[in-house]
Amino acid sequence: MPALKVERAHGPALREVLKGLRVFNTDVVGKLDHKALTVTLNEKGKIIGGVVGETFLGWLFVKFLWVSDKYRREGWGKSLMASAETEARKRGVKNVYVDTFSFQAPEFYHKLGYREFGRLDGFPAGHSRIWLTKAL
Asked: Class of the 33-135 domain?
C-alpha cells in the first residue's frame, strides 16, 4: 500500500514529480519545447542584474527579474526584459507571463505593456501577488 511522506527538501522527489508531470503533459499536448532563458547584466565580470525564465508551449514565463540597487532606475530592467522577449521571439514564443508582488514591480511591467490577469490579495499580508501577461 502506498504511504505519504513529508520532505523538507526537494531533492529526488522534485525530479520524479517533474518527470511524471512532463510525461503526462507531453501525452496530452505533444512536444513541450521547454528551454531555460537567462539574460544577465554584468560589470567587471560580476552579475549585477538578470532575468531568469523559461520558454515552453509558445510562452515565456519570467521567473525572476533583479537589478542591483546601484543600477536601478537607469533602464536596465527594461533592457533585460527586451532582451528576454527578443530571444523568446526567436524561439517562436507569442506571449509572456510574469508574477510579481505589489511591493515589487507591477507598475514597471505595466509601462512595458503588460496587463494584469490575476491577483491574490493578502499574499503576503498587507500586499498582493499579481500575474501579468503580454502578447509579443
From this structure: alpha beta
